[in-house]
């Protein structure tokens, strides 16, 4: 079991640098390639959209190749995609970004089901552990992007350097990956295909995943750019993002325990969503001198929100098969919804919108997340009855 935990940490480290390493050097990319704000918005949106498009393919691939081999394949694609982005050619940058988003979508969808299978009674705590690794990867991507660009001689080499961590995870996974253990036939018998689409609880979890992810990817894609508009230098703006993601480590570990304190998860989710939007509004509209308080609030809120969204996939699933399907649905539809966030910011900046207008949009997204949280946070789960039918208990 320690080997499995180590593998989850290594894989988790690779699920954010492809996203967080881009925004600190986005202005440099625009200067070198004459990319417009709308084009930059598309560049930050594409990986999130691909997360949603390719997440539903993960169960299909896992059924045919096995989840372990599927994850190996996805890590190999991720390493290649990150290397491709190092060419500093705009078309290859877009292509590598699409491939990276697709690979991360498959990896991220498989992890909740693997955790539910390997650690059925500790799935919520283990989710916090690999979410912590995911946050650490995001922080490293944001914080090291500018220093690596300066040290290696360009933003392309900085982006490509993250392929080394993906290769490390691939080698470790191939050597230590767990063996497939089929579940009891009774646990999957009679489960109708796409039955989750008929369950309101599944859509509530999906709505929460999508809305909180929209805020998260707006931060990953645009926070350094928005803070530069408030007068900060590019290095400090990138550092703000890195510190925010580092703070997420605390929330990622603490939120699963916080969720156990009440009768259900609603108070915990509302608390972290409130912290997220408070931090964002403080950063974009509050005094610049208070930016560090905003960064801490934002990190605690977003780390907790994402950890809770992933934890709910495990808690609302009766077995690993349902967890895999719910993960596919929540991350598939959820990330397609989330992709609208970064794209909207790019469009708004392209037409000259100010930070006040952007702040209003962020508040509306947070309200949507809170509404979904009130429904998804109730103590219920999707399960299979004695007749093999999917039900909500």
Automatic annotation (TrEMBL):
It comes from Aidingimonas halophila. CDD domains: MFS_NIMT_CynX_like. The keyword Acetylation does not apply. The chain crosses the membrane at residues 36-58, 92-115, 127-148, 154-173, 201-225, 237-259, 268-286, 292-315, 327-349, 355-376. GO terms for molecular function: transmembrane transporter activity. InterPro entries: MFS (IPR011701), MFS_Cyanate_Porter (IPR052524), MFS_dom (IPR020846), MFS_trans_sf (IPR036259). Residues 1-381 form the Major facilitator superfamily (MFS) profile domain. This is MFS transporter, CP family, cyanate transporter. It comes from the Bacteria. Keywords: Membrane, Transmembrane, Transmembrane helix. PROSITE patterns: MFS (PS50850).
